[in-house]
Write a structure and sequence with these properties.
With 240 residues, this protein is mainly alpha-helical. The protein contains 9 helices and 5 strands; from the N terminus they run E-H-H-H-H-H-H-H-E-E-H-E-E-H. The strands form 2 sheets. The chain has a 3-stranded antiparallel sheet with strand order 1-2-3. The chain has a two-stranded antiparallel sheet with strand order 4-5.
């Protein structure tokens, strides 16, 4: 079930922050590609330098190669590095589809803070379950998981266009995102059974941690701001 888009008729502002985040991620990845084509070892060092390496957090120090900044700086820098085109493309697709409405609801500055905070929580969740790992963790997945958590909390009935086998149809957000989080939970349970946090190169606990943080953030925001009237509307594709 591949999401293709959602109903944006109730969106009030163009998603400037979401677009900037996508642009920064793409620019960072193009820089990675330039290093890989020039000197692959430079790319390896870049990843190990700026990614989250759980063992650094267990020891409380920056391990070689050093970054010249506090080791916890990588909680932010790691969000803008990706391991390949598929990794980048999948993350940016989800960010574009689901991030715009969350940005619209939060407002631009709060959305930036929310995005970074959920990404940090997700990265720390990965560190907690596998503190001795020396494998670098990169990607915007934890932050985007936070966006999904907020989206399903704020817009559970909003219709999402999805590619299902060879057909395009629309299903409620709670179905699309619900299936996604179930997959993450099952996968993270499997990684516990193997006594490791990495399963197939995917940091599932970062996804779960980011998602939980996103749900919590949306609930707190709703408690503070109240529930907008349009949340009570069931959205449909097609005519009004």
């Amino acid at each position: 079930m591949l999401p293709l888009g959602d109903d944006n008729r109730d969106r009030e502002r163009w998603p400037v922050v979401t677009a900037i985040l996508i642009a920064v991620n793409v620019a960072a990845f193009l820089y990675e590609l330039s290093l890989d084509s020039r000197n692959p070892q430079e790319l390896v060092e870049l990843i190990h330098r700026w990614a989250v390496v759980p063992r650094e957090y267990k020891l409380g120090e920056d391990l070689p190669p050093h970054i010249g900044l506090p080791y916890w700086t990588t909680l932010v820098t790691s969000m803008f590095l990706h391991g390949g085109w598929a990794h980048l493309g999948g993350n940016m697709l989800y960010l574009w589809i689901f991030g715009d409405n969350v940005e619209d609801r939060f407002g631009r500055i709060p959305f930036v803070l929310f995005y970074l905070a959920t990404g940090i929580v997700g990265a720390l969740a990965q560190v907690v379950v596998n503190p001795g790992s020396t494998l670098p963790t990169v990607g915007a997945s934890a932050a985007i998981s936070g966006v999904l958590g907020a989206y399903v909390t704020m817009f559970p009935r909003k219709q999402i266009r999805v590619l299902l086998f060879f057909f395009i149809t629309a299903v409620p957000a709670i179905v699309v995102i619900g299936l996604w989080i179930v997959t993450q939970l099952v996968s993270s349970y499997g990684s516990f059974g193997a006594r490791t946090a990495e399963t197939g190169g995917v940091a599932y606990m970062a996804h779960v941690g980011g998602f939980v943080a996103g749900v919590a953030g949306a609930l707190i925001w709703r408690a503070i701001k109240g529930v907008p009237r349009r949340d009570h509307i069931t959205y449909h594709y097609g005519g009004r």
